[in-house]
């Protein structure tokens, strides 16, 4: 036995299992218990000539290692020295790199448990098999590993253990009463079925459709897998959740999910293999992740993490268990990307989206909140041309298509180049040119002779200067707060300390332009409409 490894465990007889390894001191979760180079490697599917190579390799081992190899347990019948060696390999090997079955002397003494307290992995950098403690292991507790993978039903575990290793597992999981065992199996099957959805797809755009439902599936998968105790599968689910959050520019959740994925990875593999530093590097710079920023539907900053990290409330926030409602405000926050969406953030045409639609059980998805597509017109529609080229709030170029019904008819209004267009309850449809918004009802679309940046700027100013904070208001002339009583006599929305500030606001801070924009009822209605309050879908003109 490697003297370094021996400090943590010794070999003892275990009733019904032969020998096994036992902790000679408490081993904390995450500890690397054993790290060992194989003495023999054989292809997982050996040919006849591999039998001879195996025999020669064993014969060439130093005497002590050869004797140790020959005395390893062997649960398979054999006919000659060649098949005997292969039977020893089959009883004791771990699959390591490139389809190799490898035998290590200490590791071969570790018995199986379906709910094992350690996990073995192959460390490419060290060229060693490593075992890490998945939970705290007590003094004198047997160290176990899972020979066959964790996400299996009882039957799926028992059959190969019997066939390959010739024993019936009696670990705690396998000793559960039948009813509880059946419940555990159902979780295995459910997690596997849900995970299959994610395995069927790849590509950067995979997270755009119905993201909240995807997140809820990942939450359920993670919940079941946490109970099964598999770090590999927990790591995978959290990497996927991170990619999903980052696709929608949610840096706060993307970071937490990736931190968790990293922790699961390190628990199983340690932090000294090739992949751990790559994962760390990704954590340091989330926006370089290839899926980042496909849409801004869930946009957050890394720092937008609620403080109570340990409570259930935090998990609810993390997995978006409660529907996010738009922030109540006096004036529309056009920067809120859950309400004012770009093309990639929109619900997908014809599909139920849990975040935006009411229960689809009646076959038709109805809105359950207000939202719209918002963009700037790049190419004006001309008579007979039923398409608008636009740049959305995420700076993506896309198109708005009008239903054939309007062919030859006058467009709802005359979209101006550089004007802003809004389509209520828009969905992301497909065209030959890629994703587009299709307008079927002219009452759902409105264009304004204002650029998108002007609309966004005005939204910021209205929220800052027109929204009281308790008794106080912010003066649009000097930015000082106070209980102001002088307001713009034209729009009535911007407030001032005195007439000097009002003059400064009008001339130097361009209230002249804002005031003119706000005089337009259509423009005013976008800001005044209570986007956060939903009773039923609306049409243009927006109700006041
Ligand atoms: C890799 S060896 C493990 C060390 C072995 N116990 C020994 O004495 O050398 C695999 C063999 O150990 C036994 N074994 C491993 N885990 C077991 C378990 N949970 N219950 C019963 N036998 C087990 C089986 O005979 C299996 O074929």
UniProtKB/TrEMBL annotation:
Residues 7-148 form the SET domain. Keywords: Metal-binding, Zinc, Zinc-finger. The keyword Zinc-finger applies. One of its GO terms (molecular function) is zinc ion binding. Residues 475-515 form the MYND-type domain. CDD domains: SET_SMYD. Pfam families: SET (PF00856), zf-MYND (PF01753). InterPro entries: SET_dom (IPR001214), SET_dom_sf (IPR046341), SET_domain_protein (IPR053185), Znf_MYND (IPR002893). Gene3D superfamilies: 6.10.140.2220, SET domain (2.170.270.10). The keyword Zinc applies. This is Set domain-containing protein 5. It comes from Paraphaeosphaeria minitans.
């Amino acid at each position: 036995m490697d003297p370094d490894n021996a400090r943590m465990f010794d070999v003892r007889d275990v009733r019904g299992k032969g020998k096994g390894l036992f902790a000679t001191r408490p081993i904390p979760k995450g500890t690397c218990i054993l790290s060992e180079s194989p003495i023999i490697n054989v292809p997982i599917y050996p040919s006849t000539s591999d039998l001879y190579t195996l025999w020669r390799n064993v014969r060439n081992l130093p005497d002590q290692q050869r004797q140790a190899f020959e005395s390893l347990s062997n649960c398979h019948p054999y006919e000659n020295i060649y098949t005997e060696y292969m039977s020893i390999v089959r009883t004791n090997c771990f699959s390591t790199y490139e389809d190799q079955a490898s035998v290590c002397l200490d590791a071969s003494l570790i018995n199986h448990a379906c709910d094992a307290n350690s996990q073995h992995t192959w460390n490419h950098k060290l060229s060693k098999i490593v075992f890490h403690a998945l939970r705290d292991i007590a003094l004198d507790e047997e160290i176990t590993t899972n020979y066959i993978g964790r996400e299996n039903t009882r039957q799926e575990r028992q059959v190969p253990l019997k066939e390959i290793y010739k024993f019936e597992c009696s670990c705690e999981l396998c000793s559960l009463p039948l009813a509880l065992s059946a419940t555990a199996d159902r979780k295995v099957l459910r997690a596997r079925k849900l995970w299959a959805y994610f395995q069927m797809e790849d590509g950067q755009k995979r997270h755009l459709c119905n993201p909240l439902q995807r997140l809820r599936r990942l939450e359920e998968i993670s919940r079941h897998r946490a109970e099964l105790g598999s770090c590999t599968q927990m790591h995978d689910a959290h990497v996927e959740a991170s990619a999903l959050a980052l696709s929608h520019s949610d840096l706060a959740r993307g970071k937490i999910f990736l931190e968790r994925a990293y922790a699961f990875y390190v628990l199983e593999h340690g932090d000294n293999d090739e992949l751990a530093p790559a994962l760390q590097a990704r954590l340091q710079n989330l926006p370089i992740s290839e899926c980042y920023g496909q849409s801004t539907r869930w946009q957050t900053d890394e720092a937008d993490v609620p403080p109570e990290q340990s409570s259930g409330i935090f998990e609810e926030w993390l997995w978006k268990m409660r529907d996010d409602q738009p922030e109540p405000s006096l004036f529309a926050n056009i920067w809120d990307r859950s309400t004012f969406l770009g093309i990639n953030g929109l619900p997908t045409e014809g599909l139920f989206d849990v975040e935006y639609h009411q229960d689809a059980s009646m076959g038709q998805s109805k809105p359950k909140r207000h939202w719209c597509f918002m963009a700037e017109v790049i190419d004006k529609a001309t008579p007979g041309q039923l398409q608008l080229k636009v740049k959305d709030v995420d700076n993506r170029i896309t198109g708005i298509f009008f239903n054939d019904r309007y062919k030859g008819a006058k467009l709802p209004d005359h979209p101006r180049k550089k004007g802003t267009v809004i389509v209520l309850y828009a969905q992301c449809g497909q065209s030959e040119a890629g994703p587009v918004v299709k307008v079927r009802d002219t009452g759902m679309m409105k264009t304004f002779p204002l650029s998108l940046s002007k609309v966004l700027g005005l939204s910021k100013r209205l929220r800052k200067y027109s929204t009281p904070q308790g008794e106080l208001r912010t003066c649009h002339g000097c930015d000082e707060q106070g209980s102001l009583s002088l307001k713009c006599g034209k729009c009535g929305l911007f407030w001032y300390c005195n007439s000097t500030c009002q003059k400064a606001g009008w001339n130097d801070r361009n209230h002249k332009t804002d005031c003119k924009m706000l005089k337009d009822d259509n423009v005013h209605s976008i800001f005044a409409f209570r986007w956060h309050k939903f009773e039923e879908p609306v049409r243009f003109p927006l109700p006041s």
